[in-house]
Amino acid sequence: MKKVALLCSLICITLLTASAAFAAPSLKIGGLFAVTGPAAFLGEPERNTAMMVVSEINRAGGIRGQKLELVVYDTAGDATKAVQLANKLIKSDRVMAIIGPSTTGESMAVIPVAERGRVPLISCAAGIKITEPLKKWVFKTAQNDSLAVIRIYEHLKKQRLQRVALLTVSDGFGASGREQLKAQAARYGIRIVADDTYGPKDTDMTSQLTKIRGLKPDAIICWGTNPGPAVITKNARQLGIKTPLFMSHGVSSKKYIQLAGKAAEGVKLPSGRVIVADQLPASDPQKRSLIAFVKGYERYYKAEGDHFGGHAWDAVMLLKGAFERGATTPAAVRDQLENTRQFHGIGGSFTFTSRDHAGLGKDAFVLVEVRKGDWAIVK
Q1: SS3 helix, strand, coil % of the chain, rounded to 5?
Q2: pTM to 2 decimals?
């Protein structure tokens, strides 16, 4: 943590000292990330990535001769704090766009602020309700949880696994995932035989898993973000459960494997391609961006870039494209974002329209599994 903090400080110093080279006013954007608190595994890589990309853009001469300025605040994963800071970014800092927040709950709380302030918001969270129904000023870079459900259900159908037990976290992300899991089940011939939940701070889920074991499902789907899913993985193995275990994209990083340890072996989940970038064919349209992001993050922070940092990479680069196409006001930025076509980013190939501010299809996900302590693509 100290090394990362030092590197972040060095990037900030670089950004400040470079400002003298830009004569024109800066293009100011804001970032709301859960750098501390229970969602720090999301917010820290997002903050780090946003700072890295902005630094690289300015190092290369900025955008149309203007410096890109990033104002970042830590929400600590708290929706009330996120709302306060969003108001500060709009009213005091006068940013042209906001990236974040990190979680679905925070994003839903901040949306009215962005809509009232008429400032584009690019959420880094996955809940489908962030952009459905459509909000004029709101976009997102995290893949919709509905697409993650499709990827899992397609695999289950192919494997002829029909009886499914659900275990979802009782927060915004879990509620949205649970809703999609239930809504799409019939379409894939899935029968939900258990529908249980756990709290974000729960440290033992053996009670729920014991009940699920007694029902003998064909598969168990856990929907949540760390550390809960790692606990569930360990609990399942401790109970001797051999049933195929699926996780959501909410744990799509090496952190999940580190937390769950050997118990994670064989667990499958839908993920963006970044965690398996080196396994992709050269023909994959995302590979160039993915490799650039992974190598850049390693160079700056001596750590692997992940699925979550990728959401911020996409957001900054989408804004860069809007500015390069001549946007000079929040309204113009919004219009240019909506006109984005086939931007090959980290989360997928984005095409926004006046009816779609999520911009991705089911091909944004691949199904991966833990194999020998690392991620591998499920063929």
Answers
A1: 50, 20, 35
A2: 0.88
